[in-house]
Amino acid sequence: MFNVSIDAGGVEQDPSGFVSYEAQGSNDYIDLKSDAHFSQRTRPYVGVRITNNLPILPNLKLDYMPMSFSGYGTLNRQITFGGTTYKAKANFNLYAKMNRFDILAYYHLPFISTATKDMLKVRLGLNVRVVDFSETFTGNNAYINGQSVGGYYTESKSLTVPIPMGHVGVTFSPIKQVSLVGDLNYVSYGSNNYYDYNAGLRLSPAGLFKSAIVPFVQVGYRYEKLKIDQSSVYADVKVTGPYALIGVEF
User: Fold this and answer.
1) Pick from 141, 188, 136, 153: nearest CA to 21
2) Residue 131, CA distances (Å) to 15, 41, 64, 184 in order
3) Residue (of 237, 245, 180, 250) closest to 32 by Cα position
4) 3-state DSSP call for residue 37?
5) pLDDT exceeding 70 applies to what percent of the chain?
6) Predicted model pTM
7) Across the chain, how many H-helices and E-strands are there?
8) Per-residue confidence at 209, pLDDT binned at 50, 70, 90?
9) Residue 195 in contact with residue 185, Cβ under 8 Å?
10) Which strand (E) or helix (H) includes residue 131?
11) CB-based contacts of 210: which residues, under 8 Å, 6+ apart?
12) How far apart are CA 128 and CA 104, in angstroms?
């Protein structure tokens, strides 16, 4: 009645965009590339999928992927971050984190699978993404209410928010051993929007021999875009890059 798939691998994360906290204007937006000099990082990924043959019970997929970056630079302008003003030529360090945990419940569209003899499978569902977001800015030449605080001063903000997202997934298998896979998660509300998609190639020896456990490998590319304006935090961030993973189905 139930099948389980477990996979793990690495994701190349190349960030770009802007972040701020209690910004007074666009000059307070910190550019992750030109200001903080963020560079790409490789982070782990792990996922578990539980599928079933019961038409009324949804399938379940759980994913976890950490995402954090840090960089440093020298300001070419005065900015305000939180309740602190940092003058031009201040040296600073910026740390940003967007760890994610996904809980996806979905159904296959059976008429598509039947019509294509399982060559094409389409998934529709609801994904609840719990995002652990934080940003920390540490710099010198800092002033609060016009008074110098001396040395280095740190302002930080963190949010942990569950974000419901619509989900669409597609698997196209011209033969059992080769599959093209893709997934899209999307939500938009107010001035916030968040979406990501991935597309990849999966290879497995399914059907070539009898075994209760079938291994597979998958490589592909993913794109993630987050725009959030909430609790005095503004972020417009894009993270892209290739990924590779290995897994087993049983």
Assistant:
1) 136
2) 16, 19, 10, 17
3) 237
4) coil
5) 100
6) 0.90
7) 1, 16
8) confident
9) yes
10) strand 120-139
11) none
12) 6
